[in-house]
Write a structure and sequence with these properties.
The structure is a single chain. The protein is of the alpha/beta class. The chain has two domains: 18-48 and 310-419, Aspartate Aminotransferase, domain 1 (Alpha-Beta Complex), CATH 3.90.1150.10; 53-308, Aspartate Aminotransferase, domain 2 (3-Layer(aba) Sandwich), CATH 3.40.640. The chain is 37% helix and 16% strand. The chain has 14 helices and 17 strands. The protein has helices at residues 18-23, 50-62, 73-93, 107-122, 141-150, 170-173, 196-205, 225-228, 253-256, 293-309, 311-329, 359-368, 381-387, 403-419, and strands spanning 31-32, 35-36, 38-39, 101-104, 128-132, 153-157, 178-184, 210-213, 232-236, 247-251, 269-272, 277-279, 335-338, 349-354, 371-372, 374-376, 392-396. A seven-stranded mixed β-sheet has the order 4-10-9-8-7-5-6, with helices on both faces. Helix 5 (141-150) links the parallel strand 5 and strand 6 (153-157). The protein is globular, with a radius of gyration of 22 Å. The two termini are 16 Å apart. 46% of the residues are buried. The chain binds pyridoxal-5'-phosphate.
Amino acid sequence: MRSSLSVDKTPSRSGLDIAKIREDFPNLGKSMRGKPFVYLDNGATSLKPRQVIESEIRYYEEYCANIHRGVYEFSEIATEEYDSVRSKVARFIGAPEDGHVIFTRGTTESVNVVMHGWGRKNVGEGDVILISEIEHHANYVTWQQLAQEKGARLEFIPARPDGSFDLSGLDALFEMPVKIVAVTAMSNVTGYKPDIKTIIDTAHRHDVPVLVDAAQYASHHTVNVAELDCDFLCFSGHKMCGPTGIGVLYGHERMLADMDPYMYGGDMVVRVKRDTSTFKPLPERFEAGTPNIAGVIGLGAAVEYLQGIGMDAIAEHEAHLIEYTLSRAAEFPDLVSYGPADHSTRGGIFSFNLGDVHSHDVGSILDQEGVAVRTGFHCAQPIMRLFGVPGTVRASMYLYNDTDDIDMLFEGLDKVRGIFNR
Ligand SMILES: Cc1ncc(COP(=O)(O)O)c(C=O)c1O
């Protein structure tokens, strides 16, 4: 089914050469269930370009060694490659110092490093941790558990029924004893992008630090932590063309200096005496043990790849895709989509239900058509409660998707309707 819409199908306003970009991703040439593969599950993880895959293979095949320890050439090369990625990532997010970039396993671990290292020291009985109902469980359960442990309580930035924030009463929230704000820069369910800068500036006027969960945002937009003036920012390599098992915690120096290590062990100590130890400065004191060396090297290749294409162009391309998707959705009267109607406040994520058909049924039928989407509650049960549904179907886009992928999604939805006689 082709659409007769007013929204441009192609070319994308971003000027990206999507056909050329697609050639970099080996998975995109595959078929699934015998159909051309349409990947719309980028919110869960992105596909990986050859450049990233090959960088990891090179490490394993050509100079595999542990880092910071060896006195031989390959260990030196591995160390140089690893350390250079820290600088690349620092530049990618506008961090003033390489040492403010800490490698973790992903966003979940980054939030946990802050919760254990800063939260446990600074949050006490009666304090408030300000989060929101649109958070992923990584940035919800972690703070909920700290609140339970410390006798503190969670409070919420008010969300409207469409999952957007009502910031009109934000200032007044800080009349409560708020110790930290932890908030997403982009919802993994609706793609809604809150006004993070206003939240940070308001919190800072009350001397409250802000952690930004940029798991979804950083893979699709330019990030500048210095301009944002956030205290912590967390993201995952695997959602931005990088390998699994590697992520980043950016911390402002004033915050990192006030934090205890999350893990103890080798590579993070200066001197170990019988009963006491002293720890290395930033960032090593937060990176105990052998790190994910191949993952870091792959992350560096992913950052280079994305920068080569341009983060602003990627954001522009996805803005076009979500606008196109929402226009096409309007052709389906029985489709309920979640999130603000104003597409300019959203990234490339489209969550919906089709009548009363269960989201898993929709996902299974789309699978038979070669279309990969995510179904269920997307590790975000609080926002499902806000929407009053147990789950949704989520199509999430990235730089290699085009309007043909969106058309395939809607063709699949036509099949769903046929099967359910809708
Ligand atoms: C908004 C958001 N925060 C946190 C996470 C957790 O990321 P990870 O599983 O890579 O640790 C995700 C993953 O989907 C996410 O979408």
